[in-house]
C-alpha cells in the first residue's frame, strides 16, 4: 500500500479540485491519503502556503505540486 499526504487548507478551491481528483483516481485498497491542513502548523504554512495543494508520497518523500491532472497523478502514484 502506498501512503500519501495532501497538504491543503479550508476554503481553497484548488485543494477541493485536487481532493476530488484523488478520490476519483486512487484505489482505496492500494492507496491512503491523509489530508493535512497547513493552517494548523506554522512550519507547514511557511513551507507550503503559496504552493498548496501539494501531494507527498510518504515513502519516497517526492512531491506533486498543483496543477496536476489524471495523467500526472497516475505517473506520480506509479513511481
Concise overview:
The chain is α+β, with helices and mostly antiparallel strands. The chain has 3 helices and 4 strands.
How would you describe this protein?
- The chain is an alpha+beta fold.
- It has one domain (2-78): Glutaredoxin, CATH 3.40.30.10.
- It has 3 helices and 4 strands; from the N terminus they run βαβαββα.
- It has helices at residues 13-25, 42-48, 70-78; strands at residues 2-8, 31-37, 54-57, 63-65.
- The chain has a 4-stranded mixed beta sheet with strand order 2-1-3-4, with helices on one face.
Topology:
Layout: E1 2-8, H1 13-25, E2 31-37, H2 42-48, E3 54-57, E4 63-65, H3 70-78
Parallel strand pairs: 1-2
Antiparallel strand pairs: 1-3, 3-4
Distance between the termini: 13 Å
Helix content: 25-40%
Tell me the domain tally. Answer: 1
SSE run: EHEHEEH
CATH level-two architecture: 3-Layer(aba) Sandwich
Number of helices: 3
Contiguous runs where pLDDT drops below 50 for at least 5 residues = none
CATH fold naming: Glutaredoxin
| CATH homology group | Glutaredoxin
How would a crystallographer describe the biggest sheet?
4 strands, mixed
Spatial arrangement of strands, main beta sheet:
2-1-3-4
Shape: globular
Radius of gyration: 12 Å
Output mean pLDDT: 97
Features:
single chain; 79 residues; alpha+beta; Glutaredoxin
